Amino acid sequence: MSISGKRLQIYLELLRSEKPLGIREIQRRLGISTPSLVKYHLEYLEKAGMVTKNEEGKYYPIKRKDSIVSLFTVIGGSVIPITVFFSVFTISFAALMLALFWPPSLAEMSLAIVCITSGLYMGYESYRLISILKSELQK
């Protein structure tokens, strides 16, 4: 089940939150006009298996593997594509390897080029994932 627009905004807000949120709290945070509209979207997300409600009536997210959101992680309240970490790691590895083994042999230079290329590709994929998420939020 695919989500976009307000439902995706609500789901991302629940992911960013460090605690379960009530309907009115979500309404205030996202500036949604009525609590009933938030409840309508939360019920849809609950039926889709993306959120659940605790005994206090507050909602928290369930991270699903079949959603675009599974390609992101939340750090310090920011939603970040997982590919960013791979990009930073591979480029840092290449830089460290070149710094430690200067001047590099042909094999070391080839490995560095592969690492840098794959790191740049992962960076591009991160940018693309952010663009997709932004377009889904605007629906």
Observed structural traits:
5 helices, single chain, mainly alpha, two-stranded antiparallel sheet, Arc Repressor Mutant, subunit A, 139 residues, 4 strands, 2 domains
Brief characterization of the structure:
Helix content is 60%, strand content 10%. With 139 residues, it is mainly alpha-helical.
What do you see in this structure?
By secondary structure, the chain is mainly alpha-helical. The chain has 2 domains: 5-61, Winged helix-like DNA-binding domain superfamily/Winged helix DNA-binding domain (Arc Repressor Mutant, subunit A, Orthogonal Bundle); 82-137. It contains 5 helices and 4 strands, in the order H-H-H-E-E-E-E-H-H. The strands form 2 sheets. It has a two-stranded antiparallel sheet. A two-stranded antiparallel ribbon has the order 3-4. The model has no long low-confidence stretch (mean pLDDT 88).
